[in-house]
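Regression test case RT-17, inverse folding.

Input:
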């Protein structure tokens, strides 16, 4: 069921679009301009809900089956599982900081800008590692019976931003991405 890996790659593409949008807002912040804090908060809300709640756990299950097929991948599997926790924790902290700013809390710029850029960079590197390493191995080594067991173990939920219907909370974020996609096609 290589289509599961294809789905994860598509989701990574969606996450990259969100990280690009978040980075653009952080760049405005760095320049002393006014970023859209609500947009940033909605991005982080999504990233701490869907990827952390469904995408990463799915990867963890796939990687555990891959580990059964090839024990030599243990260091990579352990490191990527650790990174899932780091991403979840840093995303949650950044989300809390952005919510505090929206609520009117005065906060030093470094409490938003540095953690935000670190989150974006770390997340991108993490996805690149998964795609260039364990995704390829999973496609090659896992068998149909493995994929059936994996699908039986994972929780699934429709993607609230890129799925069949967009949750109202994410409409503004989705529209920004759609505009950016339209702009890149027109170039």
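Golden output:
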């Amino acid at each position: 069921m290589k289509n599961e890996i294809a789905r994860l790659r598509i989701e990574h593409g969606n996450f990259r679009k969100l990280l690009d949008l978040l980075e653009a807002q952080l760049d405005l912040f760095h320049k002393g301009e006014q970023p859209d804090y609500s947009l940033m908060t909605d991005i982080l809300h999504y990233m701490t809900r869907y990827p952390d709640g469904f995408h990463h756990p799915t990867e963890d299950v796939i990687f555990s089956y891959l580990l059964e097929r090839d024990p030599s991948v243990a260091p990579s599997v352990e490191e990527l599982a650790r990174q899932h926790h780091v991403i979840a924790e840093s995303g949650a902290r950044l989300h809390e900081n952005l919510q505090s700013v929206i609520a009117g809390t005065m906060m030093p710029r470094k409490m938003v800008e540095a953690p935000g850029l670190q989150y974006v960079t770390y997340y991108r590197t993490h996805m690149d590692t998964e795609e260039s390493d364990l995704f390829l191995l999973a496609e090659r080594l896992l068998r149909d019976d493995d994929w059936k067991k994996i699908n039986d173990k994972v929780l699934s939920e429709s993607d609230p931003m890129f799925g069949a219907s967009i949750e109202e909370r994410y409409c503004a974020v989705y529209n920004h991405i759609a505009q950016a996609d339209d702009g890149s096609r027109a170039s």
